[in-house]
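Data card: per-record layout.
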Amino acid sequence: MPNSNTRVLPTIRILQVEDDPLDAELIQAELDADGIAYDVRLVDDEASYTACLQEFAPDIVLSDLSLPGFSGQRALELLRQHDEDLPFIYVSATLGEEAAVEALRNGATDYILKQNPTRLASAVRRALAEAESVRAKRRAEAELIRAQRFESLAMLAGGLSHDLRNLLQPLLLAGDSLQDYQDDPRLARLGALVRDCGRRGLQMVQSMLSFARGARRAEQVRVGALLDALGLLLRGSVPRAVTMDVEVGDRELTFEGNHTELQQALLNLSLNAIQAMPEGGELRIAAVEHELAEDFFQPGEQPHPGRYLCLTVADTGEGMPPHVREHLFEPFFTTKEGGTGLGLLSCKRIVASHGGVMRLDSEPGQGTAFHLYIPLDEPPAEAVAPEEEEKESLLGEAERVLVVVEEAGPLSLLVDILDGYGYQPHASQSGTAALQWIEAHGVPDLVVMDADMNLFTGVRTLAALIEHGYRRAVLLLARPEAPPDLEELPALEQLYLVDKPINTQQLLRTMRQALGGQEAGAGE
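The structure for this 524-residue chain is written out next.
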């Protein structure tokens, strides 16, 4: 009878290397007596052994030391070429102490003498537990390395983002400038093309940067923007044999959540779906509203009936059998070679962090569909006011504007645009040059300054300008994901942050607002 305190193992696959059927039965009897459930394959030659390693996929190997035309040493060598962690136990009548020590050095897990097999069952249990522990450790180490690679990617993406923004900013400014030539349709069309190409390139940079950074702030997520970003990330990953269909019920629907985490979950599910269709098929991604009743929720879930956004990722692949579906969200469970078994668990965590639930539909031969249900807040009762009640003029009145930007291309374009709109712009390519200009020409009506300068930062330059007596408005051009540190800055009543990349119309509106707000103090 097995010990009542002994942990019951699931059915294990045993590959037994033995040429004596009687000895094989005695070994199996020891396992039966301990209550171990097993499926065994008995082999006594190299060809059969090698075939079973591939086809039978054993959990453990029990091997005699010497067989006619084959040996335990050779069996161990072949196993270690196949799997470095799979347990291997010698069960032999001829294993001396020196040979046993040598066997352990060569990679055997344990050894048992046929004359005293009582330790066999406990040795099998311990070997399997240790092997699983080693595999879990390897998976955790691999996941850590993967996380470190993503962290390095985020650092690299941050650095590249700054350079790429500087390259794309002139395209946006030049496009806006060319579109002002409405009397020449060719120039206007060229301006629209240049601007749209710049915006598309910038959108791709921002999407990759957002994914790599893994921002965790709560924000208003727009469904259309979420799926557009997913499409950019999937571009190049969808094989020709796979067609992708995206269905969006309401592109303007917004909800509070984390854009980056949801993007990560959808990307993970989409890549899994693609891998499930090696011969091709259809990848369907959908975002539609659903009304969930209380009986929709399962035991262990908090029932919150109401409006939900259902994000679906479905494929027409081979589907999943019941035993795979049962373990799908267990840590480190994976059916993919080289997989970590943490991707779906991460998806489920992301959905749960949004107060949502996750569902799976999959049957063998019928494909797989994951449904992510994200709760939606009720829409506000008050109607949204019009964006602009009346469009004000963007033309300047010959105000003197000091433009401080380190990059020559954007600086030149900004100066040309402001000059075309009736301002008197003055270009400075560094904080030092800006201070020298003020000392030579006096205080300007407005300062437009890049926050991302290297040699003399925007914040330091602004502090120096204030020390030189500047008290008027300042427009600080800054990246939304990396706002400047204003703690070292003296108090300034009129400081306007303008997001980069610069939108010409928004910049001009902010300038009119800033100049209008400082009229009372213009004589100071």
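Known properties of this structure: Residues 92 and 113 are 5 Å apart (CA to CA). The chain has three domains: 12-115, 220-294+305-377, 400-521.

See the next section for split statistics.
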